[in-house]
Amino acid sequence: MTFSKVTSGTEDAVRVLDVTHWTDRLFSFSVTRPASFRFRSGEFIMLGLLDERDKPLLRAYSIASPSWDEKLSFYSIKVPDGPLTSRLQSIQENEYIIMRKKPVGTLVLDALTPGNKIYMIATGTGIAPFASLIRDPELYEKYEQVYLIHTCRNKSELAYGKDLVNRTKKDPLIGELALENLVYLSTTTREKSDVVGRATDLIQSGELFSLLSTSPFSPQQDRVMICGSVGMNKDMKLICEEFGLVEGANSQPGHYVVEKAFVG
Ligand code: A2P
């Protein structure tokens, strides 16, 4: 793929810098960041490849790197017959992919009203936007405590999140804040681990709040960001509403926000 083929007003060809395969279902990759590209932590963009007719085949990807980073990182599932990920999973360093330079999304700090504690609830690749947010100094200016909760099927699928949190706590810029204020809790549903069960069930039973030594969600103090499968998002929305939390948007900030993790 050449730059001339795809570079237009809204799309850029970006060079792949690294690719990591975490499991046979999950991989992450980084690309060069176009010079003028700005985004807010938690936003997503469209990216992908050219199809057989040289038409862009794009899907939504949350940006998983912090807004101050020189490169842009992404975390993806591999869908065996997914039109894009079946091909994207074999990208190599120095190859080019296409990116549309218009970041969007509701999983941003601007869509929440002020609070003390923030809970980030993710399943699978839904952790990607939080990989950006937990490295944003603004998060720690706005919240005293940050809780990152990640549910996956198996322990091996937690590797990306564990590595992310370890790196964040050692980061020269954000490490000190994260060490003090970021709490990470991982759970599995199909294999034994320290904490077993869906985040939704653990919230409803109250176990999550005991594990974190916190209190049930309160509209006065707590804010929630949700990113995962359609089912998890739906269930978490209902749970938030039951606790009296109101959904927020860019135009009208609220107590919680939701975004669908990319699949396909
Ligand atoms: P489960 O194993 O019980 O289906 P996936 O890899 O399919 O995207 O799933 C990621 C994780 O999300 C799995 O641990 C899965 O649990 C969990 N999950 C799926 N649906 C829901 C839901 N409605 N609420 C909470 N967690 C869910």
How would you portray this structure in words?
The protein has 264 residues and is α/β, with parallel strands linked by helices. It has 2 domains: 98 residues, Beta Barrel (Elongation Factor Tu (Ef-tu), domain 3); 150 residues, Nucleotide-binding domain of ferredoxin-NADP reductase (FNR) module (Rossmann fold, 3-Layer(aba) Sandwich), CATH 3.40.50. It contains 9 helices and 11 strands. The strands form 2 sheets. It has a 6-stranded antiparallel β-sheet. A 5-stranded parallel β-sheet has the order 9-8-7-10-11, with helices on both faces. Helix 5 crosses helix 6. The protein is globular, with a radius of gyration of 18 Å. It starts with a helix and ends with a strand. 43% of the residues are buried. Bound molecules: adenosine-2'-5'-diphosphate (A2P). Adenosine-2'-5'-diphosphate binds next to strand 8 and helix 9.
List the helices and strands and how they pair.
Elements: H1 3-6, E1 11-21, E2 26-32, E3 44-50, E4 56-62, E5 71-77, H2 85-88, E6 96-100, E7 117-123, H3 128-133, H4 137-142, E8 145-152, H5 159-170, H6 175-181, E9 182-188, H7 199-205, H8 207-212, E10 222-228, H9 230-242, E11 256-260
Bound molecules: adenosine-2'-5'-diphosphate.
Residues 123-124, 151-153, 189-190, 198, 200, 229, 231-232, 235 line the site of adenosine-2'-5'-diphosphate (A2P).
